[in-house]
C-alpha cells in the first residue's frame, strides 16, 4: 500500500553537475535557487561509478547496483566480441529493478522527464518524456497522449543538442550556445506544465549541463573568453528550472551522475596494443560498423586483445582463452611501464578489483583511466602519438570526473548540513526508503538516514 498525505519528492538530475563549477556560480549570484537549497538543506559530493560515465552511472543511480550486477560500464557495451555491441536501453533499467518500477509496484505514480537512455518506452504508472540517447524514430513520450501535449507546450520539444558532431558549432560556438538555450527553455516549459499534474514522484534530468561542460569548459572557467557571459546565462536558465521545482514546496533531491573537470591530453590504446603485439590489423571485416569505438580493420583471428572506449575511460578485452590470466597481467604491467616512461598517470584495474556481481562475464577484462580523466581515450584511432599532452580537441575542453553532487532540501530534510561519503548507489535505496518501501537486498547502497529531519514522518 502506498502512503497518503505525505510531502512528495521531486528529483532534479543535473547531468555532470560538480561543485567545482556550481560553487563559483553561486558566489557570483548566478544560481540563487541552488544556493537556497544548499544553505537550507543537506549537501555532499557523490561518488559516481567507475567509469564516471552517463550510461553506467544513470543505470546505477536508478537501481542502486554496481556494474558487476548491471553489466553496464559504458553507453555502448561490448558483450561477446567486437561485433556484439549493445546500447544502454530501457531494458537495462527494467531487468535491474529501477526505482520507478519499484514505486509503481507499490501504487505510486512516477513522472520521469529526460531520464537518459530510457528507451524504448514501456508501460508505467505515470509519464516518460524522452531524455538523451533515444533513437530517432520521432517518438518522444509515454503515454502517447503526452506526446501531443509536450509538443504543443514546447512548440517542438528538443531532448538533445549534437554538440560533438555538428560542424557549425566548431566554427561558431555562439550557435551552440543559442541551441542549448533553446533546448533548456523548451524543457523548462514542459517541466512547468507537467509538474502541475498529480504524481507521487517527479523527476527531471537536465542533460544540457553535461553538453555545456564538455563543449564550453574553457568558456566557463576563463572570465576573459569571448562567450563567458553567455555561458553563465545558460546556468542562470537552469537555475530558473530549480526555482519552478521549489515553488511546489515539496522535498527536493538534486543529483548528478558524475562530476566534470578540464580535458587536456589524449591516449590511443589500440595503437599501444598494436605496437606491443596484442592487436593485429590489415583485414577488413565486419567490425566496420564499430568504427566509432574500435578500428575497423582489426584482424580478430590473429589479435590477442582489443580496446573499446567512448572517451572517458578505456576497456581492454582479451580475446583468447588459453593463458588469459597471464595475458591480462602482462598487459597491465607493460602499459604501466609505458606510462612511467612517458610520465603520465595510469589507473588500471582488472574487473574483479572494481565490481562484484553475477554479470562480471559481460564486462571487459581490464579497465583504466589516464591522468585522472584529464585525458581523452580514443580506441578507434591508430593515427598519431600514442600519448599526447595538451592536444587540441575540435570542440571538447571538459571531461567527466568521479565527484558528482548530492543535495536534499524540503520539509522532511535537515537544514544546513554537510555529509560526506555519499555514493551513487545510495540514491535508489534512499528514494525507496522515502516511500516507506523496504530496500531490496540486492541494492549495493545504503539509505542516507542522516539527511532526514528527526521529526519528519520518514524517520518515525
Ligand atoms: Zn552524464
CATH level 1 name of the largest domain: Alpha Beta
Helix/strand-derived category reads alpha/beta
Uncertain parts:
287-291
Strand content: 15-25%
Q: What is the helix content?
A: 25-40%
Mean pLDDT: 93
What is the CA-based Rg, rounded? Answer: 22 Å
Number of strands: 21
Proper CATH architecture of the largest domain: 3-Layer(aba) Sandwich
Topology:
Elements lengths: L8 E6 L4 H9 L4 H8 L2 E6 L6 H10 L3 H4 L5 E3 L6 E3 L2 H6 L3 H7 L4 E6 L10 E5 L10 E2 L1 H11 L12 H5 L1 H22 L6 E6 L1 H14 L6 H19 L4 E5 L3 E4 L2 E3 L1 H7 L29 E4 L5 E5 L5 H19 L3 E5 H4 L11 E5 L4 E3 L9 E2 L9 E4 L1 E7 L7 E2 L3 E2 L3 H8 L26
Parallel strand pairs: 1-8, 1-9, 2-20, 2-21, 5-6, 5-8, 11-16
Antiparallel strand pairs: 2-19, 3-4, 6-7, 9-19, 10-18, 11-17, 12-13, 13-15, 14-15
Bound molecules: zinc ion.
Zinc ion binds next to loops.
